[in-house]
Amino acid sequence: MFIVIEGIDGCGKSTQAGLLVDVLKKSKAKPKAEVLHLHEPGGTRLGEAMRELLLRTEPKVEISARAEALLYNAARAELVEEVLLPALAAGKHVVCERYFYSTIAYQGYGLQQDTGALHGLCAYATGKLKPDVVVLLDLPAAQSFERMKRGKDRIESRGHEYLEHVRQGYLLLRSREPERFRVVSALGSQDDVHRRILEALADVLP
Ligand SMILES: Nc1ncnc2c1ncn2[C@@H]1O[C@H](COP(=O)(O)OP(=O)(O)OP(=O)(O)O)[C@@H](O)[C@H]1O
Ligand SMILES: [Mg+2]
User: Fold this and answer.
1) Contact yes or no for 206/93 (Cβ under 8 A)
2) pLDDT averaged over consecutive 10-residue blocks of the chain (206 residues)?
3) Is the distance from the beta carbon of residue 189 to the nearest atom of ligand 1 less than 6 Å?
4) Which ligand is nearest to the CA of 19?
5) Residue 108 contacts residue 118 (beta carbons within 8 Å)
6) d(Cα 64, Cα 80) in Å, to the nearest integer?
7) Class of 2-200 in CATH
8) Does residue 10 have its Cβ closer than 6 Å to ligand 1?
9) Contact predicate 18/38, CB 8 Å
10) Hey, where are the domains in the chain?
11) Rounded CA gap, 26 and 125, in Å?
12) Which pTM value belongs to this model?
């Protein structure tokens, strides 16, 4: 099974992906499946090198909007080919923080690039591989800023209004794929959110 966790910066993706991976690892379902915890951009040598380039602030690399979309998708293509497809073919469960929905939400709705063109680019990069389910952690941008106490990375430093556009973009994406998206409020404690995610995934979890 392929589960993607999406949502704006600081909404709790890494926290909740970790808790979900623990649940999957403890699953009593037979046969027992291995569980892989991935994040985007990353998960391959190329992807981790690109993550460093894309997210660093010191020294900041100027990247134009289209180049940014292409770089994310190059890292994604590598992840699909080298990691995701082999893992899924081997029957593993994959929990991935971010996938192509992030490109549409951030570069499309956030940076106001052509979302139709970006959908095409993402389809090319992923070979149209889609997750079984997307958990969209929904949080107002103001709350996410409160949670991000550490230094802001290059994307996060674009500010509050940008992130709110991204958030609205995610909600529009949900309306394109209502059966795949499970929107979960990311407000409240980590345990509250974790419980909500388990409820939202009750029909798909092994
Ligand atoms: N429900 C919660 N309530 C309060 N703080 C939280 C909650 N969930 C996570 N946090 C804290 O908020 C911060 C951001 O969480 P986390 O790193 O999981 O988010 P993220 O979506 O992975 O962020 P990023 O997009 O930057 O990778 C962390 O310091 C984390 O401990
Ligand atoms: Mg994270």
Assistant:
1) yes
2) 97 97 94 95 96 87 93 98 98 98 97 96 98 98 82 67 95 96 98 98 95
3) yes
4) 1
5) yes
6) 24
7) alpha beta
8) yes
9) no
10) 2-200
11) 33
12) 0.95
